[in-house]
Structures are given as structure tokens and as C-alpha cells.
């Protein structure tokens, strides 16, 4: 009888990208070789070797290179997410891919918004409603949908902060599946709002 592989909890798929001991982005493990994150998190060519991937158990990994994510987004949004290729293969726990939603959440349903504190040590989760792409475009001054296209999902965020929190690459969850990756951070475009990219499988 073959050994049954148990999928880790969703939190274990979350990683932090560290540069000079500071969190610069987050991402999710999608297989033993790759991490999915926001395109804005792509390390500069001369920084790839200096960015560390910090896993849930505080072990680290390295990045060899990055590629556009074609299999985790709708075609029109493929340039908004990237795959970071890891220097060392992850262990058997990640043989099973994380649950990723095949369709975007219905607009009327709330989703679970994740965020990290400034040091990246505390993960917070809260239920939040979605908002329309039209409203999101208006709030971040993107009337032509250059950033917020038809394949994005925007969430309302009641958090207020005086500075930009670099929660780029952190996921949101719907029905216990990853359904999007934060591409706008928190308060980095406009006070008190966040935008997220829907990333169907």
C-alpha cells in the first residue's frame, strides 16, 4: 500500500521574500521548485542571489531565476504574476500542490484577506467584501484598466495606515483555496485600499 501524502495547512505554503533581513514581499509555494508572487516582487538581476525565501518553519531557500506565470492566471494577466525558481527542491510535504480556485469568487461573496505585520512575523486574517473593478480603478487613478483589468479582483480594506505596507504577493483565500495574490500592497496606491489579482488555476 502506497504512502498517503497529507497536504500541509494553507499557512505553510506562505513564504516571505527577505532582503537585508527585511520582508520585501510574500508568495505561495505552488510546487517543490517554484513560488508564485506578484510581478512587482521580481528581484533585480543583480539581487537574485541576495534575496532569501523564508519558509514557514524559518528555514531559507534561494532564487535561481524568475519567469512569467502563464499557468496561474488568465491570459490577459500573465504579466502581473511571476514564478520564482528555487535553488533547492522542497521536501515531500509540497509534493501536493496547494488548492487554487479554478474560478474567481462570485462578486457578492466575502473572502479571507491575509496580511503580515511590518516584520513579517505575525499573520493576520480577516473576512472582507469585494469591491467592483470600476471603483478600484477610480480609487487608484487607473481609468484605462492598465493595472486593474478584467482578470483582477479588488477587495475592500478597512485597515488604515500612514505608510505603505509591502504586502505584495500575499494571497487571499476563498472557500479554503488560494484565489488571488496582492499586487498593490496596502496603502501603497491610496490610503486604506488594497487591490488583488485573481489567479485561477
TrEMBL record:
InterPro entries assigned to the protein according to its UniProt record, in alphabetical order: Peptidase_S1_PA (IPR009003), Peptidase_S1_PA_chymotrypsin (IPR043504), Trypsin_dom (IPR001254)
Domain Peptidase S1 residue range list: 12-193
GO biological process, one term: proteolysis
GO molecular function, one term: serine-type endopeptidase activity
Protein name per Swiss-Prot or TrEMBL: Peptidase S1 domain-containing protein
Organism field: Drosophila gunungcola
Amino acid at each position: 500500500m502506497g504512502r498517503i501524502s497529507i497536504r500541509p495547512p494553507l499557512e505553510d505554503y506562505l513564504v516571505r521574500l527577505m532582503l537585508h533581513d527585511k520582508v520585501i514581499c510574500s508568495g505561495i509555494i505552488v510546487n517543490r521548485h517554484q513560488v508564485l508572487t506578484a510581478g512587482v516582487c521580481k528581484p533585480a538581476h543583480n539581487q537574485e542571489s541576495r534575496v532569501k525565501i523564508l519558509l514557514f518553519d524559518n528555514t531559507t531557500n534561494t532564487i535561481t531565476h524568475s519567469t512569467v506565470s502563464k499557468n496561474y492566471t488568465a491570459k490577459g494577466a500573465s504579466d502581473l504574476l511571476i514564478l520564482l525558481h528555487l535553488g533547492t527542491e522542497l521536501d515531500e510535504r509540497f509534493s501536493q500542490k496547494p488548492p487554487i480556485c479554478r474560478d474567481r469568487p462570485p462578486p457578492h461573496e466575502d473572502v479571507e484577506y491575509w496580511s503580515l505585520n511590518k516584520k513579517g512575523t505575525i499573520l493576520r486574517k480577516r473576512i472582507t467584501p469585494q469591491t467592483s473593478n470600476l471603483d478600484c480603478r477610480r480609487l487608484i487613478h487607473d481609468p484605462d484598466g492598465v493595472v486593474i483589468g478584467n482578470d483582477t479582483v479588488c477587495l475592500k480594506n478597512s485597515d488604515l495606515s500612514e505608510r505603505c505596507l509591502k504586502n505584495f504577493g500575499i494571497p487571499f483565500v476563498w472557500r479554503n483555496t488560494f484565489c488571488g495574490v496582492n499586487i498593490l500592497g496596502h496603502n501603497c496606491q491610496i490610503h486604506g485600499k488594497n487591490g488583488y489579482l485573481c489567479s485561477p488555476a
